[in-house]
Amino acid sequence: MSFASGFKPPTPGSSEPGTRSKTTMENLEKQLICPVCLEMFSKPVVILPCQHNLCRGCANDVLQATNPLWQPRGSSSSGRFRCPSCRHEVVLDRHGVFGLQRNLLVENIIDIYRQQESSRSVDMKQHQQQLMCEEHGEEKINIYCLSCQTPTCSMCKVFGQHRDCEVAPLSSIYTRQKVELSDGIAVLVASNDQVQAAISQMEEICRRCTCNSPRQIRFLQEQTLVNETCKV
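Request: output the structure for the sequence above.
Response:
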């Protein structure tokens, strides 16, 4: 199937933007599915003479399954296989599937699709994690009360218990506190390194003391013996 053929627009009866967007993305995703592995096309994507697309790896698998003894660049006969979508016979030259043209358009569309899906996933997570004000149920917590040291909403600042307090955007406070926390962690890590170095130094001193103890004992014993001999 070519990329353009078979594409269905969103259902006309769907009036909600979210539903139309979801339907469009689902229809788009169907056009980006490889008929062999049934997964989204993986790079590089090759375009067959019949204008259908395959992952290069899948095209090579189909070729090897059809021509188990055929080797690229080393065979006098042409490699042949039939398109999994329309059964059109594909005749390859000595380069095998590497001689097929890459479909850069499909590859670019896949990149854009994945970026959009990733962005939508992040937006959904952020929406799900958005906290709502307990006092004003429909208001999002979007500011931070500096006086009370607590997150709150705009309605609380205008009409509620924080109307006489100093506030700041929650995002800026989050960024600032994140930096402060990172700096604090860095200080703790540096302090931990110093503590570990001191511990290692003390352990080395203890080890040396342990090794030297018998020598010191013998030295003291000898000194005591010498002093007693001198007295005699």
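Residues 177 and 183 are 10 Å apart (CA to CA).
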